[in-house]
Amino acid sequence: MISPSVYLQVPPPAASIPSPKASAGQSWASLVSPVPNEAVDVVVSSCGGQSRRSSPNACIHCHDLTMEKEKWLHSYRQQKEIALRAEQALRQLQLELDDLAASLFSAANQMVARERQTRASLEEKLGQTRQQVDQLQWHLRGSQ
Fold first, then answer.
1. Concatenated DSSP letters for 22-71?
2. Residue 3 DSSP one-character state
3. What gap in Å lies between CA 115 and CA 120, rounded to an integer?
4. Is the torsion defined by CA of 10, 11, 15, 17 positive or negative?
5. Which pLDDT tens digit goes with each residue over 50-67?
6. Cα 28 to Cα 88: distance, rounded to the nearest angstrom
């Protein structure tokens, strides 16, 4: 008796896919390649004497494999959609972070500029006050 030969290629579940280290500018979705049709075809060379591809009424075993394939494809598509949404959210957060950093540096630069102006003004007043003190001391010495 010859046992049926069954080959089923499906992507591994997303939970077991280690997260690759994407280089700068490379997205997670671009690292996950689309599943080619030939990679998910079920090939049954012998199943009760009938080929899966030649007969729509294949055995229950073939039906189970087809259901398993569909389950894996559905899981793959869900995980890819989740990855795309996460990538989009990450880009949005990066834009917000860039905007916040720019506004923070702008506010800090304005504070530094105001402090420098205030300091220059106070140093000028201090210089005028010292001149007045020196003049008063000179008048005091002259009147003694």
1. PPTT--HHHHSPPPPGGGS--EES-BTTB-TTT-SS--HHHHHHHHHHHH
2. P
3. 8
4. positive
5. 444 445 555 677 888 889
6. 10
User: Which residues pair with residue 50 across a beta bridge?
Assistant: 47
Q: Pull the structure tokens for residue 30.
A: 């671009």
Share of the chain above pLDDT 90, in %: 49
Give the three-state DSSP class for 11.
coil
The two three-digit tokens of residue 103, written as one number: 């506004």
pLDDT in tens, 84-109: 999 999 999 999 999 999 999 999 99
Task: Indicate the Cα dihedral angle 78, 83, 84, 85, nearest 10°.
Answer: 90
* Distance (Å, whole) CA 122 – CA 21: 55
User: Any idea which residue has 């003004």 for tokens?
Assistant: 121
Over residues 41-52, the pLDDT tens digits come to 444 444 544 444
CA distance 54 to 46: 11
Say if residues 94 and 56 touch (Cβ distance below 8 Å): no
